[in-house]
Amino acid sequence: RVGGGSGSGGTGAGAPGSLISSVVWEVEAARGEPRDALGDHDSASSHLVRTVFPALTDYFDRHYQVHVTKMPELPAASMQRLMSSVMSLMRHFRSLSGSALAEGIKNERRAALKATRMLLLSMDAAAPELARELCLTQNLAASLGDGASSAHKTDRSTARVREAMEIWGALTHAIAEKLGMHIEGNEPIENRVVEVGGVTYTIQKATLFLIARLLAQPHGTPIAASGLTFESAVAALTRLPNSLDRIAGGWPAALTVRLIRSMRCVVLIDDGRASSQGWLAGWHALGWLRPAGAAAGMAAVVPDIMREWRQRKYNTLGATEMALRMMADPNRYIAYEATELLMELLADGSRTVQETILSLLSSGEPWTHALLANVTRVLKDCAKALETRRPRRLPRRLPVALADGGVVAAPPADGADNEDDEDDEEEDEEDAEAAFAVASMELNGADDVFESARKLLCCMQSMCNGQYGPMQRLLHRQPRAMQSVDMLAEAVALLNVLQNHVLDSFVVGDTVVPGLMVGVMEFLLEAMQGPCGSNQEVLASSQVNLLAACNRIFGYIEYVFNRLLIKPPVATMKCQIKCAALRMLLGLLEGLTNAAVVLRIIDVLDFGSIEKQVTTLYTMLGLGSQPVFFKPDLVTQGKPLNDRLSEELLLYMSFVLKLNTQAATSGQQRVVLPFLQELWTNGHDSRDPETLGKHRPHAERILAFMTKHIGYVEVMFNGSVEPVFFNLTRPCQDLVGSMVWRQQIHTNLQSNISPGSRSLPQVKSGELVVLLDDTVRDITVQQKSYVRNKWIPLLLKYKIHLQTGSFFLALTALLLLVFVLDSSHSESFDAGYVNSVFSGDQGGPTVAYIIVYAINLLQCCCTTLVFVAYCFSDFRKYIKTQQERMAQEAAEQARIDAINASLAALPEAVAAGSGGSGGRDGGSGGKGGTRDAPVSVVLGVPQPPAVRREQSSFVKVMLAFLQLVFFWRFWFTLIIFTASLLALITSPFWLCVLFFIYFVDFQSGATLMSAMRRAGNQIVATFIMGMLVIFIFAIITYSLFRTDPATDPPPCDTLYQCMGSHITAGITQGSIAMLFHEEVWEDVPDAFWQESRLQARTAMIIIFYMMWQFVLLSIFIGLITSAFEAIRDDQITVHEDSTSKCLVCSRDMYDFEHDTRTGFKFHVERHHDPISYIFYIHYLRNTRRNDFGGVDAVVDKLLHESETAEERASWLPVGRALSLRQQEAGDAERAVWQASLLQHISARQEAMDAEMRAVLARLAKEG
């Protein structure tokens, strides 16, 4: 039997052929067996599915790739026979269906189908081209029949596939030969086994891999015996597909698809150095590396700088133009592959690629119209296919994780349902087999029109990513095109069609239609964010009808309070659709200057349905009268389901609140969902039962949810104040309710803004942004510390209290020594502090010393905890700041070096280009050519980014220490910590070092030090002047009075003694009279003309006394007094500014008390709360840039790229407030209303006067 065949030639060259022949023979025997043969363990069918097929599956998975490389030729014919026979056997097993089969035979049949399918999948992975060719032949034969003509057409299709394979193999060898390479072995093969770093990998799509490796050479590598570089070869290949139509007979579509795919592979694996890590990561990202798990560590996230370099390089080499032109090809496989290449180039919104696409599509060439027509056709084909598509079912047996969520299917009512289950299983098996056959036959996913539409939507979304306004407008209207195509309208039309089928998808759990709906809305959101005002107006207009589509979404996509009817996957799909719709509506409101859009949204949307959705959501989340509907540990698609529902509820709230804010700003008095607005505005003071309505019993819980999760700030955006509602991050949610932390932050912000900037709002805002960013760093450091150690946040919270406690413990210990230590114990104490603790006379001092030692030990523990707290907070934050600064300086220096290198190489490139044809094609004419010219100059290709080597732990620690050397807080804390340890080990007198804590961290001591710093320069200058004066008088004394007979003893013998004695006497006594004698009256002679030398000495003493005592000492006192007065004035300024002006906008309190209904306190606590701005910056730091809205992107750019503090703070609403603007709008509206009312009254009065005159005239005529 089969075992003998495999054993007889298991390792020879002909073994696979003999093995395959034996298996084919056994399969043919199994097909001729009776229907119940699977129940007989001795039958060929049972032997195949139990023993042979699992062994063959393992062989093809593990050993075939190694074995096939050693063969002289590939066993293509044998493999085709094996695939064909196994597929025939699968159809034979599929035909064994029906209720007449015994239950045991049904189970054996299921096992046989599973084993057969697994073998086919393993063979498809081992030899995908052969599998695709076989499935193509069989599908054509099945569709055309069994006649001679069908066989002829099948052979012709097979021949074309083989021809394409042969051309691709020849092209591979030709490219390698042109590049000076040689491909060894039996090529092309579809799999290759390589070993990297001791790990063996199986490379699938080996021919693509070879091409990609050939082209992704190190940057600027020259081609042997040529004047070109490998970059020139890539540029030539990007132009090759555009030239295929000029080749006689054309090329097969499969070849063009492979050529485009190879370019995509090159983009993914190129790192400028041809390293193994680069191609391993790229092939793993493509899913063509086996085992994938082994390379997961290498295939981590690609650095942004590397991705940007790849995009810029291949955009320069023409890959973007190649992809766009191929997207215009009428062949759907080519267009699909080109779309995937363009998506790779556009990853994360490459602005360079976007600009190239804009310039090409704006040219108005005929192929651009063909491209837009292709996109439109795919979207319309997707809408048509929905009419005939059968949604795919969810698995009948849900995973255990879903069943634990309380969603369990009801048991079958009777035995008839079992037959239905069996039919469903058979349908699932048929679908799996059909999907397997189709996947093997297709060149790519182009035959799936829904996948094609999804790819195109993602591609157009990437074109607009980053709020690229010109591309957003171009997708709406192409001015130079022969016929403009509105892609926004086409997308909305597809959305309307998708809505008609989404409910059917919910019933069976199909994800295709919901996924497409989300894709359409994400594209529309990206097309108007920024904002793009024209697209906002178009999407809000009645012609596009987007708002009506949103109404339908909110109207009939609802959650049901029935655990048997709602399944977590379906709830997830519903949540994703509604979240996408809400984000789209928030995009409509972003930066809106047209009040008509706000009015249309209010008029069109059904807010009754939205209120119902909000009520359902907060009830399911346990904020209403019922418990939480879904279990907290229920996870769908990697995220807890309750978190998804919370996000949806927050989006509803943010949309309603922002809509009301925009409406009030434009002067509208209508409020939608007033209960939410009432809770947000008045908070716990909400007492209006009519406004709260049925939500009043749950108002407290709803308010707590809003306060914890929603943040609000006002931002300057496009010259006006923009309200921004955002979701608080997890760390910020924990800090919202901490009143102690909020008060501390408010105090720090107010005290650290310089008094001099209080009168300059722009300077004040610049300092405020620096302080806000510093506080955000503290939150980030605390967040990271909490992830590693749960006790670190508690330590950071009480860091200041521990340091204060260390000071008072040190003071207490030294005061006890003052009262305990006397002369009788000084000798034993000086002999050793630790010994003194446990020795002493009569036990008296011993007890006191023990108490002192215990206090010292407690103080040492506090100081140690303080040092640890600083290591996790201030030190780490300082190191991170320095690293960011160094990284920015390095990046700036690298940019400057690159520009200098390009400028330096420019003359050489020009000279080299003049020697030959030059140009982008890299011609080889002339002796100079471009051989020696830098490729970055000739082709405009940027230099690859520098490799950042991973540093060892020791190097990281040393670098961190070197950075801390220049941080004064590090040395201060280290000195305090060292003194505390020395006090514990050697002498408690080291505790006096801790007294410096008073001058650093206590308010009074810090004020004194501030006064000294403020007057420090003047004090130093005065001290220098005093020293100079003393020096002058010392020289006079040494020169004139050192040998004076009247002076006994002499004041000094050397100039140094004179200088030192004068400094000592002058500073300590304020006079130098004591240097000469103690009796001052002896310095005065009897007459003026007597003792002239003595009188001169006396005059010098008096002059010195007057200069020092009356001038210099008064200057010292005056400077210190002035410093304290200035500090007091600054404190008064800070106090007045903090109590009478807003810290953010610097507007006076009077403006809000007089011009608004809410007042100044409400403004600084809700509208311009500095804590909210801290939370907003933290939100920006923890959000992907691709998820930013237009306002977020502008603020983040200002925070990261601004050069001055004032520019960084230009997004703060300095001198502006939305509440003042709303009041002005309300006043203007009231003025307009009053004017119209007065005009109406005047018109009515004139009409009445005319009527009265007519009546009087008629009466006078009659009378």
Written account of the structure:
This protein is mostly helical and 1263 residues long. It is 68% helix and 3% strand. The protein contains 56 helices and 7 strands. A 3-stranded antiparallel beta sheet has the order 1-2-3. Helix 5 (76-95) packs antiparallel against helix 6. The longest helix is centred in the last third of the chain and has 49 residues, at 1092-1140. Mean pLDDT is 76; it is low at 1-17, 136-158, 292-300, 394-424, 432-441 and 914-933.
Instruction: Give the spatial strand order of the biggest sheet.
Output: 1-2-3
**DSSP strand count:** 7
> Level of helix content?
55-70%
Measure the end-to-end span: 135 Å
Report the major sheet: 3 strands, antiparallel
Average pLDDT taken over every residue:
76
Low-confidence stretches: 1-17, 136-158, 292-300, 394-424, 432-441, 914-933
> What structural class do helix, strand and pairing data support?
mainly alpha
How is this fold's topology laid out?
Elements: H1 2-8, H2 15-31, H3 44-62, H4 64-68, H5 76-95, H6 103-126, H7 128-144, H8 148-178, E1 191-196, E2 199-204, H9 206-215, H10 230-243, H11 253-269, H12 276-286, E3 289-290, H13 304-316, H14 319-327, H15 332-345, H16 351-361, H17 366-388, H18 400-403, H19 416-441, H20 449-464, H21 469-476, H22 487-499, H23 502-508, H24 512-528, H25 533-540, H26 546-556, H27 568-589, H28 595-604, H29 607-620, E4 635-636, E5 639-640, H30 641-665, H31 674-682, H32 689-692, H33 699-709, E6 710-717, E7 720-727, H34 730-736, H35 739-752, H36 761-788, H37 792-797, H38 799-820, H39 823-831, H40 833-837, H41 844-872, H42 874-914, H43 935-938, H44 953-964, H45 968-985, H46 996-1001, H47 1003-1014, H48 1016-1041, H49 1055-1069, H50 1092-1140, H51 1149-1155, H52 1159-1167, H53 1170-1181, H54 1190-1201, H55 1205-1208, H56 1218-1262
Antiparallel strand pairs: 1-2, 2-3, 4-5, 6-7
